[in-house]
Design goal:
401 residues, mainly alpha, two-stranded antiparallel sheet, 17 helices
């Protein structure tokens, strides 16, 4: 356990973190289903559906980055609830959209609301007394709820009518309102977070370098781009039905919860750098296999391995950022950069898929994963150094207190 002050990870705090992160990242995580709905509902091409997805994801990213500094101060519950109300309104508009123009406007509103939720909820991760445990619990809970949404949204679209899945998302925003009341708040006064390696500026509280932000954005651009078209590629390449592909993606998300447990354990046993390098390599290869394969079994195995390694990487990244900056600004900034990457990803992947095909796309995404991981690997090492420096200093207080 990390020796640091902060809110205890009680059941109420864990529920608040899970609710906030789930809804804040809901647009990105459920995007494969949304893209399918966009394409079938309005007869859009791959690139046009990707542009529609990018509209929402880019709005989420920009708002998350703009509110990262604000999220490091008190008032996170109010910010989260404002975002939930705005996103819920946007989802209602998306359900009632009659054409691409109104759908774009609704997606902008959804993205803005989710961005406010995402900035506040991810910053709150750093306000707990155990960053590794909080990250693992939050990501595990988020994955579980997201798996239900991945199955529920297409089921609503199929059984009730196209676009009905957005009504389900609006209902989730309403249900999350009371759950976020225990969200850990930011510090009331100025703080002096660690400013060492990993490109963190000493002049400003945990302001990440441009290289770190670019690496984070590129990694999630690659990841979200592939994830957004996983459903489409699964149906086209393997011949599986809509429901079968949705079930595979949902099951892979649930099974991938092992990554949230294995990631921190591997970091303690083998070191963050070595374990992260293995997870990133496996993630890149699994992603390429998922895109290139025409075999349903291999598609399923690749989806599970990809999601498992992605979760292991994500948990370690969030924990390292929370250790480096307890105010939460670094976590929120990286989350915003990641959200920016998720906004660009579907558009870029759709364009490459239309122009060059799946074979080229698989190679491009695998190479992009390796390149993007380099600054993140450096940051995880910095997080380990911070944990080692703080641990011994806090021990005497624990013994005398």
């Amino acid at each position: 356990m990390n020796a640091r002050s902060g809110s205890a990870l009680t059941f109420g705090v864990a529920v608040a973190l899970i609710a906030g992160v789930t809804l804040g990242s809901g647009g990105a995580n459920v995007m494969p289903v949304f893209v399918d709905d966009f394409a079938s509902r309005f007869g859009l091409s791959d690139s046009s559906a990707g542009l529609m997805a990018a509209t929402q994801l880019m709005a989420t990213a920009v708002v998350t980055l703009l509110l990262a500094k604000r999220a490091a101060r008190p008032g996170r519950v109010l910010m989260t609830r404002f975002g939930l109300a705005l996103a819920g309104t946007g989802f209602l508009g998306a359900a009632a959209a009659t054409g691409p123009v109104t759908l774009v406007l609704a997606n902008l509103v959804v993205g803005a609301g989710l961005g406010a939720v995402y900035a506040a909820a991810t910053a709150a991760l750093a306000a707990t007394d155990d960053a590794d445990k909080a990250s693992a619990v939050t990501i595990s809970g988020t994955v579980g709820v997201t798996a239900l949404l991945i199955m529920g949204v297409p089921a609503a679209n199929h059984d009730i009518g196209e676009g009905t899945g957005f009504l389900l998302m609006a209902l989730c925003c309403l249900l999350a309102w009371p759950l976020t009341r225990r969200l850990p708040d930011g510090p009331a006064g100025p703080s002096a977070p660690y400013a060492g390696p990993a490109g963190i500026s000493k002049a400003t509280a945990a302001r990440p370098s441009g290289v770190l932000l670019l690496g984070t954005g590129l990694l999630w651009s690659v990841t979200q781009g592939a994830w957004s078209y996983a459903s489409v590629l699964g149906r086209q390449h393997t011949g599986m039905s809509h429901s079968a592909v949705s079930a595979v993606l949902a099951i892979s998300s649930v099974v991938a919860l092992a990554g949230a447990v294995v990631g921190p354990s591997a970091a303690r046993r083998f070191g963050r750098m070595r374990s992260m390098a293995v997870f990133v390599t496996a993630q890149a290869l699994a992603m390429a296999a998922l895109i290139l394969t025409h075999d349903p079994v291999l598609f399923t195995v690749a989806a599970v391995l990809w999601q498992t390694c992605q979760l292991a990487v994500l948990v370690q990244m969030l924990a390292a950022a929370a250790l480096i900056d307890p105010t939460g600004r670094l976590v929120a900034s990286l989350s915003g950069a990641g959200a920016l990457g998720t906004g660009i990803g579907p558009l870029a992947v759709g364009a490459v898929l239309d122009a060059a095909g799946a074979e080229v796309l698989g190679l491009v995404l695998a190479l992009g994963t390796f390149v993007a991981s380099l600054p993140l690997l450096r940051m995880t090492v910095a997080g380990t150094q911070v944990s080692a420096e703080r641990g011994p200093a806090a021990s005497p207080a624990a013994e005398t207190g």
